[in-house]
Every structure is written in structure tokens, then in C-alpha cells.
Amino acid sequence: MNMQNHHKRETRDYQELDASHHIHAFLDQKVLNAEGPRVIVKGEGLYLWDNDGNRYLDGMSGLWCTNLGYGREDLVAAATQQMQQLPYYNMFFHTTHPAVVELSEMLFSLLPRHYSHAIYTNSGSEANEVLIRTVRRYWQVVGQPKKRVMIGRWNGYHGSTLASSAMGGMKFMHEMGGMLPEIAHIDEPYWYAHGGTMTPEEFGRRCALQLEEKILELGAENVAGFIAEPFQGAGGMIFPPESYWPEIQRICRQYHVLLCADEVIGGFGRTGEWFAHQHFGFEPDTLSIAKGLTSGYIPMGGLVLSRTIAEALVEKGGVFAHGLTYSGHPVAAAVALANLKALRDEGIVSQVKKDSGPYLQKGLREIFTHHPLIGEIQGTGMVAALQFAEDKARRQRFSNESDITWRCRTYGFEEGVIIRSTVGRMIMAPALVAKHSEIDELLEKTKRAVDRTARDLGLM
Ligand SMILES: Cc1ncc(COP(=O)(O)O)c(C=O)c1O
């Protein structure tokens, strides 16, 4: 491993400086400062190294984003060339540039034909902020200005900015940052936790019908859109029952409510389809994208619009008073283009569908179906969740499930694998380029972490 840029400082020095000046994401900063964060210094393929030379298999693609893995020279070259040629220009002054034009050409060649335009952002949170303004503007333009309410789902995640977190359903985030008006929520389709005695199919339909009830309660004339992740990511890689999405789509169409899919995690091959809604077989009106768009090499997101919405905005909308300094940033666009080219030309998405995805999913089921700690395995392609259960027969969860999964995650680090804990589930999403040997290692190390957790609980 080439460490030429590293070991400039001792790990302790990095940790102390970090503690002095940096507030991290979603952590108790005081606890983190006392423990000291791992200092990650290098990535190559699926592997990461810390400042002390420890190697980890990254089972989470960073944060579901390094779809191509680390260390891709083609992406580095694309960024370098673009920086030399034109490091920045804006979209405000009747101007554009080849990088963003070519990215759009590529993106819409991969998307189903009924999408036609994108508004580029820097992140997924921003994509969802832009979503709210764009759908409200759309309804104004087509003569229904009262349609302003966005409906999201409890335990959904759409970002950390004010409006994106408000549309998300993480109550602890609302408590800290506040809620916004004209946003409502319905329950999540998390059968294992909330399905009771219903079959998954009954439960899926029941959850979908809540959307209809909510629309009727608010008045369809006031509801602009319904936003949801095709499968919930941060909420626990929760895959809805098969009955869910067809019913949601029917309801959105019936009440003229835009169906807004948050594809920030599911997009760009994660499920073995280019976009997760294709895996589930529904047809959203908008797609929020980020993460895998650039394989995380540089920040970029976007809001993809159906032809119907885009045509209304373009043909009848006049000025849309909206713009970001870094929309369609040339360097980000060049990296995104190189990333999409690689995903397409190297056949990576179809490989996830036909080979590596089934290999991972089969391995997980072979190892964990009869494991005493695991009540359910969900996932497809290169995304999966292991549901922890105290009593598998009764689908009973641990009362302190967050602590237990957190411990499992720590054991994962000790075993040399990064898997993420959510409230009651361990989740994984390795890079789409994972080879069988790397998937074997991921499974083996995950099993060791889960076994250690089960032994602590007296289950093994
Ligand atoms: C589904 C979903 N939407 C939006 C976001 C927010 O994206 P970002 O962190 O790039 O703002 C995330 C981040 O994890 C996400 O998982």
C-alpha cells in the first residue's frame, strides 16, 4: 500500500485536533472525543486502511455511495482533466458547459423514456429540498396552486437539512431541528416490526391504504406529492411487501398526487436494476439521486423530472426562481459521466443482477436463516439487512435492540469488516464491483461479528 501521503501525524494527534474543531454526523460528540475516531487514510477496491495500518473490508460502500469501489483511476483522470480545462462555471448567465450536457445525455440514456430533465444539486438532501419547491411550482404552473403538502413516511430518511429531514420520518431529528408546515407522514411498511398477525401482503396493502386515508383527510386538492425510498435505507434496509408499491401507485394516480421516489441509495445499480423503482416495478414522477451518481468521489445530486412535469415547467412556467452556485458543477459532472460510463461499459449493473447479487443473497440466507439471533433476512442485489430477534418464533425484538446492533457493528470493526447498525438491524451494501472472494470474506466476518453478539446474549 502506498502510504506516501499518510503518517504525517500520529493517530492521537489527528484525534485530538478533530476533537478540538469538528462536529461529526449523528454521534454523541463527547463520547466520540473520548474514544477517538478511526482515522481512515486510504481506500482501494473494497478495502479501507486506517492510520495505524489496519485494513477493513467496507461492507457499506462508504455510505452506500462508492458503487465502483475506491481507487478508480478513470474517475481521478476525469476530475483532473476537467479541473485543468474548466474547474467551474455557472448555469445562471445563459451558459452551460460540455461536462453537464454530456452527463445529462448519459443519464437520460440510462433512465426510462418518460424522464426528460434534471436539476442538479450537490447532495441528496438538496435534491429533496429542490423537490419540494419544484413540485409546488409545477402545481402552480398547471393551475392547482393549493397543492403544496408533501406526505412522507415515519422512519423514512431524505436528508439532514430542514425540509428534507421534515419530510423524513426520524422523530428524533424533528425534535432537534423542528418540523415544517405542509408536511405529513404515514406509517412505514416494516412488516417484521409492525405487521402483527397480518400476512406481509395484507400489511403492505394496509400501509398503502394509509396514504389514501391521509390524502382524503388533507384534501387531495392540497396534496402535492408523496415521497418515499423504494426500500428504506437509513431506517434499516426495509423492503416493503410486494403488495405495497402497486397500491401506492394506484392511489397517487387516482388523487393526482406526484409519486416522488428517493433513489439516493437505490439508484445506479444497487438492486441489480439501474434504479430501485425498476426492481419494484412502479413508475415515479420524480427521482431524487445522489451518492452512486459519482460513486461518492465528489459531491453531486439531482432531481430527475418526468417529461410531463418538465414540459409544464419549460413550456408554461417562465422563470423558475431557483438555482445553486454549484448546480451541474463541471468537475462533479465529469466524474459522474466517467462513473456512469464505467457502470455501463463494464456491465456492472447486470453483473449485480445476474451474478454477484444472487451470490451475496444466497450466502446470507445459507448462513443466517437458522441463526439464533436473526429473525429475517431482506435484500436483493448488493443491499441486505439482518433483522435481530429475541424470539424468532414470535417475531419479538429486543427492547434494547439499538445497543445490541451497535455492539455487533463494533465487533465488525474488530473483525475487519464495516457493516452498519440501525435500530434493530445490521445492514450491508458493498461496492457493486465486489468479487466472490470479497463477498465470501464479507459473509465470514459478518458471521463472526453476529456470532460474538449472540454469544454475549447467551443465544449460542
Ligand atoms: C434515501 C436518502 N435520501 C437522501 C439522503 C441525503 O443525502 P445526502 O447525505 O447526500 O444529503 C440520504 C443519505 O443517506 C438517503 O439515504
TrEMBL record:
Keyword Transferase assigned: yes
Family the entry assigns: Belongs to the class-III pyridoxal-phosphate-dependent aminotransferase family.
Keywords per UniProt: Aminotransferase, Pyridoxal phosphate, Transferase
Gene3D superfamilies for this protein: Aspartate Aminotransferase, domain 1, Type I PLP-dependent aspartate aminotransferase-like (Major domain)
Domain of life: Bacteria
Protein name, entry field: Aspartate aminotransferase family protein
Organism: Serratia oryzae
Pfam (any one): Aminotran_3
InterPro entries: Aminotrans_3 (IPR005814), PyrdxlP-dep_Trfase (IPR015424), PyrdxlP-dep_Trfase_major (IPR015421), PyrdxlP-dep_Trfase_small (IPR015422)
MF GO annotations: pyridoxal phosphate binding; transaminase activity
Signal peptide (from-to): none
Matches recorded under PANTHER family: AMINOTRANSFERASE (PTHR43094), AMINOTRANSFERASE CLASS-III (PTHR43094:SF1)
